[in-house]
Amino acid sequence: MEPEKAFRKYISEGYTSLYLGPILVLLGGVMFVGETILTYLVGLFLIAMGVYMVYCWFRGKKQMDRQMEAWRNTGVLQSLLVEFQQSAPVFKDTLRLGQTHLFPKGAGKVLTYGELTQVYQYVHKRNFVEDRRELRAVVAGKEITLANLPLKGKGDEDLKKVLGFFLMKNPGIHVGYGK
Q1: Any long-range contacts for 67-74 (C-beta under 8 Å, 24+ apart)?
Q2: Tens of pLDDT along 125-177?
Q3: Which site from 18, 25, 33, 137 is most exposed, i.e. has the minimal number of CB atoms within 10 Å?
Q4: Is residue 79 part of a domain?
Q5: Per DSSP, what are the bridge partners of residue 65?
Q6: CA-CA distance, 126 to 116, in Å (whole number)?
Q7: Does residue 7 contact residue 68 with C-beta atoms inside 8 Å?
């Protein structure tokens, strides 16, 4: 795969909505012609959700096209491609660390280390059972997920190394919770 396609596929937001959207529309269409008002309403809801998912995918694709074109026009794209190819994958390749940029998989954006104001580990529990663990960051006042982490602390050593790397690249970053 050529480098630009691999780069675009890695940072683009997920393709699930492109495939799941039409399936929901078809399923909704089948239920829409049902005999009761409930199947009619459920079918209508599924059709609306499917159309919305496809719309979101096309909107994300258009935004990615604009971003790639802007990088190409400013001459940044080639340096990003080289840095992406040389970057180190961490956490089962859900995040790639370059010399000046981070590449979160499926986030739709490329970040510099200087943009990060805070990074922390987020642990989600349901009924006291851990079901999700993420590396999150605050960028321009907004929280974003950088990577999915292994459950039950299996990746804690890697996490410490990555957080240390962030501190090395941006000494002003706040690591952990709190203000």
Answers
A1: 67/109, 68/4, 68/8
A2: 888 887 888 888 888 888 888 888 877 666 678 888 888 888 888 888 888 87
A3: 33
A4: no
A5: none
A6: 29
A7: no
At residue 83, what is the residue type?
Answer: E
Q: Does residue 40 lie in a domain region?
A: yes
Instruction: Give the relative orientation of helices 37-74 and 77-86 as an angle to the nearest 10 degrees.
Output: 110
Contact (CB, 8 A) for 146 and 155: no
Return the amino acid letter for 154: K
The 10s digit of each residue's pLDDT in 44-61 is: 899 999 899 888 888 888
What is the distance of C-alpha 79 from the center of its chain? 22
What is the domain count for the chain? 2
For residue 161 the two structure tokens come to 């190394």
Domain boundaries, position 34: 3-74
- The alpha carbons of the chain give a radius of gyration, in whole angstroms, of 20
